[in-house]
């Protein structure tokens, strides 16, 4: 019985230490989430403005620009830029995006269509490598304080692969942050830059013509890389926010579960201790009666 009591006591102590660790990790994730949400909200203002300008310029330059960002050709191979985390302990954050991407890849295989995968984040890289999927590009260790210079390197490589016809269109796949409890998988077309139905509706609302200096082609040459960078930057910031929210939720659940285990073990310890005391009293009484 003494051995059983010591085992329960050891389990309680180890579980308490685990709950302290998960509680601290929950607080860290909560702080990162708050900071990331502020960055994402501020960035949305810039993203909306650069999109408005780009849509207006592209709408007047359909089929006339020589920019590689606008090169539309028959789709023989589809590319997917997949953003995952560099670590685990984030609940179903990585599994949700990877499950959605794999569903897309299986459809391509069924139709015998070619595809290319670009992976940002260690979890995604290792996931695809273990399944024998060759990566056209990979990047580990995405910084928390991501800069546009780091994003520019990703965009340059993506455009190079697109120009070399490694793929004919590229989708950015990531988890979009909704709130601290939920996120949704997003797949947004990055290359070539084209107008969707909402953009067409916005253009049809006005028919203004502007005189531009320098000419429209030169402005597009400088603006389109910035627009592509903004898409990647926005996707990574959004994905990071969703990652921190998932991490906070996972650690809160782990902490709550640890407290439940501690309560159950404490009850079991008290019962075992009471049984041990009762047995000792019984033995003493029986011994006294025998004398």
Description:
The protein is an alpha/beta fold and 291 residues long. It has one domain (44-248): ATP synthase, F1 complex, gamma subunit (Pyruvate Kinase, Chain: A, domain 1, 3-Layer(aba) Sandwich). It is 63% helix and 14% strand. The chain has six helices and five strands, in the order αβαβαβαββαα. A five-stranded mixed β-sheet has the order 3-2-1-4-5. Helix 1 packs antiparallel against helix 6 (216-290) and helix 4 (148-163) crosses helix 6 (216-290). The protein is elongated and about 115 Å long. The protein starts with a helix and ends with a helix.
Question: How do the strands and helices of this protein lay out in sequence?
Answer:
Layout: H1 2-59, E1 77-83, H2 93-110, E2 114-120, H3 122-130, E3 135-139, H4 148-163, E4 169-179, E5 182-191, H5 197-204, H6 216-290
Give the total of beta strands. 5
Q: What is the number of helical segments per DSSP (H or I, 4+ residues)? A: 6
Distance between the termini: 26 Å
- Order of SSEs, N→C? HEHEHEHEEHH
* Radius of gyration from the alpha-carbon trace, in angstroms: 28 Å
């Amino acid at each position: 019985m003494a051995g059983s009591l010591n085992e329960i006591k050891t389990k309680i102590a180890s579980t308490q230490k685990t709950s302290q660790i998960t509680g601290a990790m929950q607080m860290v994730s909560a702080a990162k989430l708050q900071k990331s949400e502020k960055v994402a909200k501020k960035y949305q203002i810039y993203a909306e403005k650069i999109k408005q300008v780009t849509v207006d310029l592209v709408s007047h330059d359909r089929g006339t620009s020589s920019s590689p960002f606008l090169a539309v050709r028959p789709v023989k191979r589809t590319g997917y830029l997949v953003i995952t985390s560099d670590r685990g302990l984030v609940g179903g954050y990585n599994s949700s995006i990877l499950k959605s991407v794999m569903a897309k890849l299986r459809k391509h295989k069924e139709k015998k269509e070619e595809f290319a995968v670009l992976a940002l984040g260690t979890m995604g890289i290792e996931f695809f490598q273990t399944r024998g999927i060759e990566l056209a590009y990979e990047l580990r260790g995405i910084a928390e304080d991501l800069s546009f210079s780091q994003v520019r390197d990703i965009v340059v490589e993506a455009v190079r692969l697109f120009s070399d016809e490694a793929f004919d269109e590229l989708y950015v796949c990531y988890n979009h942050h909704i709130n601290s409890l939920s996120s949704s998988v997003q797949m947004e077309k990055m290359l070539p830059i084209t107008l969707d139905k909402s953009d067409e509706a916005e253009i049809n609302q006005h028919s203004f013509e502007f005189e531009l200096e320098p000419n429209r082609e030169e402005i597009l040459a400088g603006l389109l890389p910035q627009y592509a960078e903004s898409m990647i930057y926005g996707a990574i910031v959004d994905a990071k926010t969703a990652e921190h929210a998932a991490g906070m939720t996972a650690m809160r659940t782990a902490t709550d579960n640890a407290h439940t285990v501690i309560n159950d073990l404490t009850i079991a310890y008290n019962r075992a201790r009471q049984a041990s005391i009762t047995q000792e009293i019984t033995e003493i009484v029986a011994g006294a009666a025998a004398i």
